[in-house]
Structure formats: structure tokens, C-alpha cells
Amino acid sequence: PPSEETQHGHIKGYYIGYRISQSPENYVFKQVETNPEKEQQSTYITGLQPFTKYDIVVKAYNSAGAGPKSSKITGKTLETAPPTSPIVQIESTTSSTININWKKDVKDKSAIPEYTIHYKSDDGDWKSQQLGSSVDRYTLTGLKCGSRYQLYMTASNSLGTGEPSSPVFARTQGAAPMSPQESVFLHPNATSVSLHLSAWKNGGCPISHFVVQHRPKYQSQWITSSEKLDMPREIHTIRHLSPDRDYVVMVTAHSEAGLTQGEYVVRTLPASAIAFGKRETGLPFYKNVALVVPVVVSSLVILVLLFAIVVCFRKHSQDRRGRHDYDNRKPVGDSLMMSEMTKQIPAKSTKFSHYTCPAGKTDYAEPYTCNDSAASRQGSDGLFATIKRCPTRPIYMSASYKQGSDAFCTQHSTTHEGSTRSEPASNEKWSNPRNNSKPMR
């Protein structure tokens, strides 16, 4: 290349001019782009006449245009030339192979001892594979899935290697991973979020690993949950999150075909919520002991409380009914109609007993109620009354009254035994000459 002082910028390529030496014809130029990976740039000039001298010049160009021509050099071709490179075609591809075939140039009459195929991926280095002259097809194996490859071939013999063929491009089958929907991929809990990595579609190329990052929705700094999650793996859990809060989760899936980033916004559940059907364990409801035991215990406690309430209500109802029945029966037992009481009292004729009080030397008459008059009066007016049984009150009796009562009882019993006493006169029943002035006690 030209010296740095004369380049005036980055050199993009060269124009190679050639013509038959000492010929008045103009130069024929061939354009060659620079290869930054090589310090020395080289190319082939083909289609020349054998055993002939040619003048060759070179001009460099950049974004501003082409520079001046270099000094010419002279070269002479041989009687026979290196072989012409074949024409390469792509037959088929798979996720890791490319099938190619080629044909020899019909104008090339030289002997070709071998072919060489050169290939590389877009982000890889050049590789080559030597092939015999008797084959016309080959399969490249061990290639990256879903990657684009560039290929060309050269033919060689004892005179050298011919000009490379035009490059061809082929892509192995497969694509970059495809991100899933949020409802399938993310399963939030109160303090964690489960990522179902198996929900990602690989696009035909196996996913090698994942990179998981997350952050609160209104913060800009990412927290790396995992630098590299190697596959295969089905579930990854982001833990130590705050309940009832929005988070942004970014997942990057890597494969040979490339990478795919998926960004999701998810909200954790409230602290008091129980995520039925979204369990990290994936166990059925009846096998999840941590969930079944509290439910069963709570149900038993509720049943016991209901039973106790029912028993208390029934007992209270029975007590109230018993008191009501007792109140209804009580007046019947304690109260008697006057008519019933009248029937119970034996009929007695009006009779006056006479007794003398020894202490005061006074005679007292004790009248008895006449039942006949009471019965006739009851039958005439039809009225009745009830008598309430009440506790008996203590009766105070003086000493003289008590002595008189005892004497009366003695006299009354003697009369019933057989001795008949003459009935006093009517004026003697209620009075005594000596006690007329004294009131009756």
C-alpha cells in the first residue's frame, strides 16, 4: 500500500490495470477491495494469453476517489496456466450441515490435481477443506445452527492455485429463540416470581443458556438474578421481592442462531393472598400438605363452634319452656276457688261453745261460721274468690289467753267423751256480771 503520508484517509481498495506490453491499447482495470485482516493485499489476473508480456499498474482509492497510477511493472505468462476455479452451487442445508456441488470450467484444459473449499460464518474465522479432483460434491458438517456461511473454492495443480471462485452464501436451518407470552411464562407469588423457561420456543436451535435480570418498575438499575442459566432447566425463581409491587423482568435467551431478549412487567401478589392453581411445587391440591392441613383444621374448628352454639341455644330454649310451664302450673296448685274450698269444709251447724277463762273469771263465747248461709249467698250471686296460701304468721297470745284456751280444750274434750252440759242462757253466752265493763280481748 502507499505510504501513510500519501494515503489521505482510509484506503478502501485498489484498481489493478493491465495490458499487453508495448500496446497502444488502454489499461483494463480490475477492482479489488482491501482485506483489513491481511497486511499484504493480493489478487489474480485471469484470462490472459499464454507466453505473453503484460504491463501492470495499480491505483489506490478512498472515499474521495482514486489516486495516481503507480509505476508499471512487466510480467510474462507461461505456456500453461494454473487451473480456473470451479463454479460452486448450494444443494441443501440442515441445522448443522451444508451440501454443495461444483462444476469445472469448460474453458479450462489444465490438469487439476485437487480442489479446496473455504468457508466461514459471519462471526467466525476462515476454515478450509482439501478435496480430491475426482469428486464433485461435498457436505460441510459441524456447522452452527441458524447461521449464515460464506463459501468459495480454488483449484490447484503443479503450476499453482487458480483464482478463487465467486463467493456463495448459505444459511443453516434454525432461528433465534422466540419469547413466550407473559401469562404462560411468569407465575407471580407474594415474594417471588417463577419463570417457566420451558415456555420459550427454541426456533429449531437448542437454547444454550439464559440471562435473567429484574428491577422495580420505577427504578433504572438492573439486578442480575443469574449470570448464566445453563440448559436444560424448566423453572427459575426470582426471590426476595416485595409483596404487591410492580417489577420489570428481562430475560435473554442465547442459542447458536443468536439471542432474543424478552421484557415483562409483573406485579407480585398481596401478602395476604393465597395463589390457588399457581403453586411452585406443581403438586395437586390434595397432596399439598402445607395447604390441606390449615384448611382441615379450620373446618374442624368451625364445626365445633357451630355444634356448641346449637347446644347452647337448645338448652336455653328448654330452660325458658320449663319456667313457662312452672308459671302456668303454679296458680293452679297454690290457689283454690271458693267453691272448691266450700266443698272441702264439712258442713257444720251454727254452734256456740262456752268456756271460762280461769284467770279473769270471765266466760267467752266462740262463734263458728255458718256454712249454710255462706252457701246460699254464693249460689245467689255466683261470685267466687281465691285464697292464696301464704306463710303462717306467728300469733301472739298472752299468758291469760293461753290458760283460757287450755281450759277450753280440756272442757271440750270432756264434753265429747259423754258428759252432756246444759246450754247456758242466751244472755249468759256473751256477758258476765262481773266483767260487763271490760272489753273483750
UniProtKB/TrEMBL annotation:
Domain Fibronectin type-III: 1-80, 82-175, 176-271
Matches recorded under PROSITE patterns: FN3
Transmembrane intervals: 289-313
PANTHER family with a match to the protein in the record: NEURONAL IGCAM-RELATED, TITIN
Record keywords: Cell adhesion, Disulfide bond, Immunoglobulin domain, Membrane, Repeat, Signal, Transmembrane, Transmembrane helix
Any GO BP annotation: synapse assembly
Gene that encodes the chain: Dscam2_57
Biased composition (Polar residues): 421-441
One Gene Ontology cellular component annotation held by this UniProt entry: synapse
Region called Disordered, residue ranges: 410-441
Membrane topology type: Single-pass membrane protein
Identification of the protein by name: Down syndrome cell adhesion molecule-like protein Dscam2
Pfam families, A to Z: fn3, FN3_DSCAM-DSCAML_C
Entry-linked CDD domains: FN3
Subcellular compartments: Membrane
